[in-house]
Amino acid sequence: MLLRHAKAEAGNGAGDALRPLALAGRTQCGSVGASLAAAGLVPDHVLVSSAVRTRQTWDLVRGALGTAVAPHVDVSDRLYEADVADVLDLVRGVDPGVATLLVVGHEPTMSGTAAGLSRSGEGGEAARATVRAGLPTAAYAVLEVEDWASLERGGATLVDVVRPA
Q1: Integer CA distances (angstroms), 60 to 7, 9, 78, 91, 123, in order
Q2: Whether pLDDT at 116 is above 70
């Protein structure tokens, strides 16, 4: 899954990487966690951008998933300013035993990665249109991947794009 961070506060002069979540974003995180749990999409491994808002997004989503959830989490400076190629490199490095991966990052990279990985003509028109337009805050794209290590552009099936309430 590729998750765009939840709604963040407007810039406050402290720098983009230090922007925290807004109150609305904190609320969104509970919906994301509930949505992931209801769909059986609890991650084994999480890649999180080092920005404050992405780390807060993951912490609050994890809390909504329940206390028994303890995936391996990698916080990455590289994911903060990542492009699609960077995300693919990070995903290729994930242990092959990981069944469900969650990447918490930023736009336009999350939607660009979903679009780039998607096989042409799969995933339904609404999902494809959403990733082409850009993921709204706290939305996530669900993709099916055969093998992390050999993942290439066009190498995944876009299953859905979810916008939790």
Answers
A1: 13, 16, 22, 23, 28
A2: yes
